[in-house]
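User: My instructor asked us to take a sequence, write out its structure as tokens, and then describe one feature of it. I'm not sure where to start. Here is the sequence I was given:
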Amino acid sequence: MQLTVNGELRRLDPSATTLDQVIQQLGHHPRLVVVEYNGLILTPERWEAQQVKDGDNLEIVTIVGGGS
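Assistant: Let's start with the prediction itself. The structure tokens for your sequence are:
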């Protein structure tokens, strides 16, 4: 399966059919990212039900802690 992730074309294992599986396959910790799927920001509760298909577009933002 081929997806665009943060503007970069990525080829993923086609066994990942849901958004939560894709997030895991990409190596992201689900509690530390915000995901935009084809222009819609989806909460983690929706990832398991969201089917992903060839050609979809993901924007993944990693949450980074810090500060003083």
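For the description part of your assignment, you could build on this observation: DSSP finds two helices and five strands in the chain. Try explaining in your own words what that tells you about the chain.
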